[in-house]
Amino acid sequence: MAKRLFIKTYGCQMNVYDSARMADVLAPLGYAPACEAAAADMVILNTCHIREKAAEKVFSELGRLRRLKAARARRGGAMIVAVAGCVAQAEGAEILRRAPFVDMVFGPQAYHRLPEMVARATRAGSGVLETDFAPEPKFDSLPEAAAPQGISAFLTVQEGCDKFCTFCVVPSPRGAEYSRPAGEVLAEARRLVAAGAREITLLGQNVNAYHGRSPEGGGAWGLGRLIRALAGCEGLVRIRYTTSHPLDMDEELISAHGEVPALMPFLHLPVQSGSNRVLAAMNRRHTVDEYRRVVARLRAARPDIALSSDLIVGYPGETEAEFRATLALVGEVGFAQAYSFKFSPRPGTPAAAMAGQVPEAVKEERLAELQALLRAQQTAFNRACVGRTLPVLFERAGRHPGQLVGRSPYLQAVHARVPEARRAELLGTVAELSIRSALPNSLSGALVAGGAAAGAEIERASA
Ligand code: SF4
User: Fold this and answer.
1) Over the stretch 354-380, which tens digit does the pLDDT of each residue have?
2) pTM above 0.85, yes or no
3) Which of 161, 271, 286 to mutate to test the pocket of ligand 1 (most atoms within 8 A of CB)?
4) Whose CA is nearest to atom 6 of ligand 1?
5) Who lines ligand 1 at CB under 6 A?
6) How many of the other CB atoms lie within 10 Å of CB of 77?
7) What is the distance between the alpha carbons of residues 384 and 391, in angstroms, rounded to a whole number?
8) Domain 389-452 adopts which CATH fold?
9) Are 65 and 38 in contact (CB under 8 A)?
10) Counting CB atoms within 10 angstroms of each CB, which of 47, 90, 106, 461 has the fewest?
């Protein structure tokens, strides 16, 4: 009897990728996706540790699952409950202490061992805890067979981080930087394309620190070299990557932005602050000027490149003048979109213990002012696209009849009404759209006559 699996994913795209791979690992055991926890024989919470109260959210969700599990047991059935991801890695034993009905707790480096953990949990009837960093990279044991991820797919190429920014929890649950061998990545990319992907986003906590063993085995490839090889993958029309660190934007990668048509002109490049003193306190190991220079080199290589970023306000000790410096840098660079946060002290990070914690009200004020500026920049960027012709990769049907939704090269959501008869043919293709209007978070456009083929042409030509 097929068993049903429900995975609830929190946090980043790497967790989305990990959840998809967990399902691939469990498929040979007979687990098929369930649409909700109540209908599942196994429920996995794939957790994120970035935000405050992350762990508390997990415990409240576990409360709901405990009731579902108990109800299933009263009907003579069984439900396996598991916690995975970064909260599991950081607080594994605590989860089993506070929620003894949980059957398995395992970190991001251990999910390739799921078949063995399920057997142990079923036998032992009590909690299995797997948070050691496995000596063997999990990727070596993941099944080749992967459920299709759709037209736009994620592919983890690098994991972990050696930067140790003082506000960040990532290095502890995700471990040291590890880059997958290039041959392995290329093989997985080909499988994703064979399964229908036309766009691949390469993932890593510090993806541009990638240095995977070359397919020939001699030496290592950087991310730029990997992207050039991926661009040769038949059927793959778009390549993206996230998340990058300014320190690792090397010449090979920057020149790829100018020379590889499939590499999209959109880059998420966190800067966090516009103050050198704050950047140093964050241990970002670069200055504001160095960030400016990276941006200038990128724009020289690809003049239409659009940038996104991460910004933190209210870092311990941040003065009004330092906050103004952040606003000034944002004004100068101009971001197509960006994520902005109030500093939140994460347990176990150096910044949490720093003097000069900024009052919550001041953080709120600064965040509101920054977000107003970022919204204005995003709206201006979208408005500037009205009247232009943009190649759009159609990814799915829209909410309205006859509507398709896709992404521009600048990762903007674009929706368009297309003739019913052409919808199936257009899905998964790059079509040329004339942009008619701009909303804060999306654009709407109309197919240009002969749009589909011309779209791909335009894309190649516009590089
Ligand atoms: S580079 Fe990113 S993932 Fe690494 S410690 Fe800094 S913020 Fe965290």
Assistant:
1) 999 999 999 999 999 999 999 999 999
2) yes
3) 161
4) 165
5) 161, 163-165, 168, 170-171, 205-206, 245
6) 10
7) 15
8) OB fold (Dihydrolipoamide Acetyltransferase, E2P) (2.40.50)
9) no
10) 461
Nearest atom in ligand 1 to the alpha carbon of residue 310 is 7
Pocket test for ligand 1, best of 156, 177, 206 (most atoms within 8 A of CB): 206
Task: Give residue-wise pLDDT tens across range 410-424.
Answer: 999 999 999 888 999
> Which tokens go with 7?
């995975």
Sort residue 442 into left (φ over 0), alpha (ψ -120 to 50) or beta. Answer: beta
Atom of ligand 1 nearest to the CA of 174: 3
Nearest-angstrom CA–CA distance, 28 and 3: 11
Pull the structure tokens for residue 64. Answer: 């709901």
Distances (CA, A) of 51 to 169, 282, 356: 9, 17, 21
Atom 1 of ligand 1: nearest residue by CA position: 163
Q: Chain centroid to CA 182: how far?
A: 20
User: What is the residue-wise DSSP string for 191-239?
Assistant: HHHHTT-SEEEEE-TTGGG-EEEPTTSSSEEEHHHHHHHHTTSTT--EE
What element of type H or E holds 65? helix 54-74
The rounded Å distance from CA 108 to ligand 1 centre is 16
What is d(CA 442, CA 28) in angstroms, rounded to the nearest whole number? 40
pLDDT of residue 174: 85
Radius of gyration in angstroms for the set of CA atoms belonging to the chain, rounded to a whole number: 23
CA–CA gap between residue 8 and residue 358 (Å, rounded): 34
Which segments of the chain have a pLDDT < 50?
453-463
Rounded Cα gap, residues 221 and 230, in angstroms: 12
Q: Which residues pair with 263 in a beta bridge?
A: 239
Q: What kind of architecture, by CATH, is found in domain 138-384?
A: Alpha-Beta Horseshoe (3.80)
The yes or no reply on domain 3-130 and CATH 3.40.50.12160 is yes
What angle do the packed helices 288-301 and 320-333 form, to 10 degrees?
10
Q: Which of 241, 196, 190, 147 is nearest to 429 (CA)?
A: 196
- Per-domain residue ranges for the chain? 3-130, 138-384, 389-452
Contact 377, 334 (CB under 8 A): yes
* Pairwise CA distance, residues 18 & 103, whole Å: 19
